[in-house]
Amino acid sequence: MPKVKAKKEKNQPGAKAVQTLRGFKDILPAEQPYWSYIRKLAESFAKGYGFSVIEPPILEEAGLFARAIGKQTDIVEKEMFSFVDQGEGAVVLRPEATASIARAYITHGMVSLPQPVKLYYWGPMFRRERPQSGRQRQFHQFGFEILGDSSPVIDAQIIALVHNFYQQIGLEQFSLQVNSLGCPNCRQIYVKELTNYYRSKRRLLCEDCKQRLAKNPLRLLDCKKPSCQFLKAEAPQIIDWLDDDCKNHFMKVVEYLDELNISYKLNPQLVRGLDYYTRTVFEVWPKEVKEGAQSALAGGGRYDGLIELLGGRDTPAAGAAIGVERTISQLKQQEKQIPLETAPDVFLAQIGDQAKIKALLLFEQLRQEDIQAAENFAKDSLKIQLELANKLKVKYALILGQKEVMDGTILIRDMESGVQEVVDFKKTVLELKKKLARLNGGAV
Ligand code: AMP
Prior knowledge:
Elements: H1 32-48, E1 52-53, E2 59-61, H2 62-69, H3 74-78, E3 82-85, E4 89-93, H4 98-107, E5 117-126, E6 138-147, H5 152-168, E7 175-180, H6 184-199, H7 207-215, H8 226-234, H9 244-259, E8 265-266, E9 278-285, E10 298-302, H10 306-309, E11 317-323, H11 324-333, E12 346-350, H12 353-368, E13 373-375, H13 382-391, E14 396-400, H14 402-407, E15 409-414, E16 420-424, H15 428-439
Parallel strand pairs: 1-5, 7-8, 12-13, 12-14
Antiparallel strand pairs: 2-4, 3-4, 5-6, 6-11, 7-9, 9-10, 10-11, 14-15, 15-16
Helix pairs in contact: 5-9
Residues 96, 127, 129, 135-136, 139, 141, 273, 296-299, 321, 323, 325-326 line the site of adenosine monophosphate.
């Protein structure tokens, strides 16, 4: 019988290691201080500006986004992670959260709450884009939505919130770009004008833009290809086609921004990549915008028709989404210091079996008393444990050896001076609390 060569098993040494999918990333512990800094600040902004938290699901009916974002947008046409779930039909991993929140507003009858309803969210979003710097397939956004009011002061408040967020994290020279897309009526007239302009330049357009011209001409202004930029610069500007109501609305928004001393740049080509926007749109750009790059840190605007489009009552609304990864990347590029995670209060070292048991119990007691103790119970060498304590920069180490177990004591070692004090084991927490309070300048 011919010998059959055994196939290499997947888990044999030398088998190819499993990787994350393209465009997906692990967020490692070393990154977490940035994440918790941004998240805490986002939550404090939400609280400060009076937003309640909402957590819509990550998986939604595919139709929600096709209806909300627009069938002829890049997101819906090419970038959704969609699949057919047995019995549920076509579902997608959400590419953004505004549509879900508009849906939730309808689902839960929020129209009967005092208006406007102010909602804040945080979470992962999924877009099947070509991964590159600043563009992932899973990324995180947090956002603020104000539903149920049409006044321009709402637009200004959302813009101010996002602007103040970037100011508070200390980003320098970010720029705020604003524009108005008008209402469906004035936009329709403008789009006709835009189409005429681009038709005459059709042969100069990139292949994607040729398609956009046929399907959704406004998206031509969204093209990031360098070759299409000069055509964009010459294109008719929507601001010249706004009707009186839309013009007055926009004037009011910028007037509020002026009053709040918020600097902004009027950008007539800013259209955003989602179809649901009406009137005000805005983006925050970093210090340097590379040509052709996807670099907006945050964006948002008014979406007065969305709730009605999804089957609710005619309800005006506005909101913004802030990209977490791009914001963190800017913090790093600009070498911004962020608050460090707090170090543990104390290191608990043990030598010998009896001491280990006592130390395990003491550790639980410390945790219940809110004293953050670091440890490495798997190690028996005092030298190694104290080296770790040094690395963690703790002020004190608690040391339990055979002798201390026999005597009913514990050593409290000042890690800076090396001075060790023998303390009655029963008074460990009390003595430690006193020392920590002294350290923090509190009452003893
Ligand atoms: P949008 O929902 O398209 O208005 O995007 C709002 C913000 O989310 C952007 O300004 C980015 O900071 C972030 N963002 C959008 N798409 C991606 C992506 N593929 N990768 C990383 N961040 C993204």
